[in-house]
Design brief:
This protein is mainly alpha-helical and 455 residues long. Helices cover 81% and strands 0% of the residues. Helix 13 runs parallel beside helix 17, helix 15 (330-353) packs antiparallel against helix 18 (422-439) and helix 17 (391-419) packs antiparallel against helix 18. It is globular and about 60 Å long.
Length: 455
């Protein structure tokens, strides 16, 4: 009897080992493309914050005027989040992401031609910059919500936080490389060439996505049943009856979402996070040059530091929340990571802002950005926790609030910096960071929107 039991156990172990060996790994290749998409998205968004200094000087713009150019991107980005998210939930992310990336690639290419186009059309150069950045923002509006839908469809419940961290990691990697890359291009070939190269990279990535990815893992020719059992237990290749948590939906319950307390905690908290994020995104280079007195290349190198910190710490934040969630529950896991990230971020930003020694202050501010995204990865994971079938629409709603926070940040930070100094501008961001963490307290990642309404 013991020999029979032992043989059965050995057989089960051998079967599990064979399953692990035969398991395809397509989902992680898709996540790799997702990270690259986020990196190129960051490149095409952040390029203006570096090239903006040269544009400001060439066309005699002041800091407040440049703030309106930054805001033009964010208006396009904010207004089109929800439409893109809705389309993604209806038709899937593959086609939606393809069209969106083509849109912002064209916008980036057009940026270098604005002076010529303005002369031909008779509009001002400033209006031309605003219009092109608005169009670029429209294209980029689809990226984060569609990527969240990809994560919902292509990863398991246990991998959700870490995969969301990889999403933010890609953004951080793009931000890390962009300042030095754009500054080097500006020095050698001018700011126009920098935008053209950004556009070329975007076209390459959109081709890779379009020809490799599929909307759902069941459709991918290289995904086998062993991997499908990891992603969506019970699914099979070509299964037309796959679970509604990862297939397209016919409608999005906006009324239920807007009547849910967790949703309001999520989107308001992310609106506050967006304010601080865009301080790093739009103004860190200006801060390094104008407040700390650094040169172009030196400031560009330091501007990479916050994004390197984001790339390194965001997957850690997602991983930590997954580990805590396994030991306790998802709400405690997400909340622990958000509180820890936002608390440390606020402390580091305050201390760095008030230190006079630049070589200590700037790394502290960079780490503050990293811990901000350590927390932010869990906002994206919570979108999937609350609404798996329509996570693109919910994350689009959340990112719309983040964009509105960025619109306010672009203008308010500039006004505070001009009239009260950069120190005051960053102190405001400290308190807003703390507010974001506190707002996330309202989010209960244990229970989805449908589950709440059914109780």
């Amino acid at each position: 009897m013991n020999m029979t039991s032992g043989a059965a156990q050995e057989l089960k172990t051998t079967a599990r080992a064979a399953l692990a060996v035969s398991q395809s790994r397509v989902r992680w290749r898709v996540m790799g493309i997702v990270m690259t998409i986020m990196a190129v998205t960051a490149l095409n968004r952040l390029n203006l914050s570096i090239a903006g200094k040269a544009i400001e000087e060439q066309f005699s713009f002041n800091t407040v005027v440049m703030g309106t150019v930054f805001s033009a991107f964010l208006w396009g980005y904010g207004l089109f989040q929800i439409p893109w998210g809705y389309v993604c939930d209806r038709v899937g992310p593959r086609r939606t992401l393809t069209v969106a990336m083509l849109c912002f690639a064209v916008g980036s290419a057009a940026m270098g031609m604005v002076p010529r186009l303005a002369a031909i059309s008779g509009i001002s150069v400033l209006a031309g910059f605003r219009l092109v950045r608005f169009v670029t923002g429209v294209g980029e509006a689809a990226i984060s919500s569609n990527v969240t839908r990809v994560i919902a469809s292509w990863t398991s419940l246990r991998e959700r936080g870490f995969a969301s961290g990889l999403q933010v990691c890609g953004l951080g990697l793009g931000g890390t490389l962009t300042p030095v890359f754009i500054a080097w291009m500006m020095v050698h070939w001018g700011w126009q060439a920098a935008f053209e190269v950004c556009a070329v990279l975007a076209f390459i990535v959109v081709a890779a996505w379009h020809f490799y990815a599929t909307d759902w893992p069941e459709e991918h020719p290289s995904v086998n049943d062993a991997e499908l059992q990891i992603i969506h237990p019970g699914s099979r290749k070509g299964d037309v009856g796959a679970r509604s948590t990862h297939r397209g939906v016919t409608s999005v319950p906006w009324v239920k979402m807007l009547g849910n307390l967790s949703v309001w905690g999520l989107i308001l908290g992310y609106g506050l996070q967006g304010y601080t994020f865009y301080v790093y995104y739009n103004w860190f280079y200006f801060y390094a040059v104008k407040m700390r007195g650094l040169g172009i290349m030196q400031a560009a190198a330091w501007t990479s530091a916050p994004f390197l910190a984001m790339a390194l710490l965001s997957p850690v934040g997602g991983w930590l929340s997954d580990r805590v969630a396994r030991a306790t529950d998802r709400r405690k896991g997400r909340l622990a990571a958000v509180w820890l990230g936002m608390g440390i971020s606020a402390l580091l930003l305050y201390c760095g802002n008030h230190l006079s020694v630049t070589v200590i202050a700037l790394p502290m501010i960079a780490l503050a950005a990293g811990f901000n995204m350590f927390a932010a990865a869990n906002f994206w994971a919570a979108c999937i926790d609350l609404a798996p079938p329509y996570s693109a629409s919910l994350s689009a709603l959340m990112n719309t609030m983040g964009s509105l926070g960025g619109v306010v940040s672009s203008t308010v930070t500039a006004v505070l910096a001009v009239h009260q100094g950069w120190g005051r501008a960053l102190d405001v961001a400290v308190w807003i960071t703390l507010g974001s963490g506190l707002m996330f307290t309202l989010v209960n990642a244990n229970r989805g929107i449908e589950e709440r309404d059914s109780n």
